[in-house]
Write a structure and sequence with these properties.
mainly alpha; Rossmann fold; two-stranded parallel sheet; 210 residues; two-stranded parallel ribbon; single chain
């Protein structure tokens, strides 16, 4: 969506000690496929803090229905993860003179994460206007979350319209060592639901790695 608007895109990935590290390999391929201006990886070891099944050996929840997913904040919530990510992006945005930070959070088909909600994104955007040189000088950063109110099916259709190669993408919270999705975690279930509602097969499932 950002490249369609002819923005010069700088992509940021964070190695935070997550068990689903296959997403970092995928991020490199996706960034390359869209010809971003620069793709950087920053390491912040959130395993040192813990508190999540994604940054510890605690089992990832499996085979849950949507009612169970929405019953509370799941163990896959990583404390302050989006705040850490957005803070890093905010710092880099100041360095490169970016006008906006784009984040793919979703508040419709999501697993109860508090830092995916519209009020959180709005609050961070306000904070950024106070905490940055650009904001003080009257050039506040926009925090753009264009997928926030879309269903998974709508996101998939939009991606196809924009030329996204979904065989390059990855969603699983607990992939096998070779990167294959488990098919049972919340993220895999929501992804499968999205492709089914869009009436499309998931091309990632036919790949050798993912």
């Amino acid at each position: 969506m950002a490249t369609r608007e002819r923005w010069r895109c700088h992509a940021l990935s964070v190695d935070y000690g997550q068990r689903h590290r296959a997403e970092l390999d995928v991020a490199r391929r996706v960034a390359q496929s869209f010809g971003v201006r620069d793709h950087r990886e920053v390491t912040v070891d959130l395993r040192a803090i813990g508190g999540s099944s994604l940054t510890s050996d605690t089992p990832v929840p499996k085979d849950r229905d949507e009612r169970a997913m929405s019953a509370g904040i799941p163990s896959t919530y990583v404390p302050a993860r989006n705040t850490v990510f957005l803070s890093l992006a905010m710092a880099w945005a100041e360095v490169v003179g970016a006008e906006a930070i784009v984040i793919g959070v979703n508040a419709l088909d999501y697993s109860g994460y508090p830092d995916c909600r519209p009020e959180y994104i709005a609050a961070f955007e306000y904070m950024a206007s106070l905490a940055t040189k650009a904001g003080v000088e009257g050039r506040p950063l926009r925090i753009w979350a264009p997928l926030q109110q879309l269903s998974k099916a709508a996101i998939i259709r939009l991606g196809l319209e924009l030329g996204v190669d979904y065989s390059l993408t990855h969603s699983c919270y607990d992939p096998s060592p070779d990167g294959r999705p488990c098919g049972q975690c919340d993220s895999c279930i929501l992804r499968a639901k999205g492709f089914a509602e869009a009436g499309l097969p998931d091309p990632a499932l036919s790949r050798d790695r993912i």
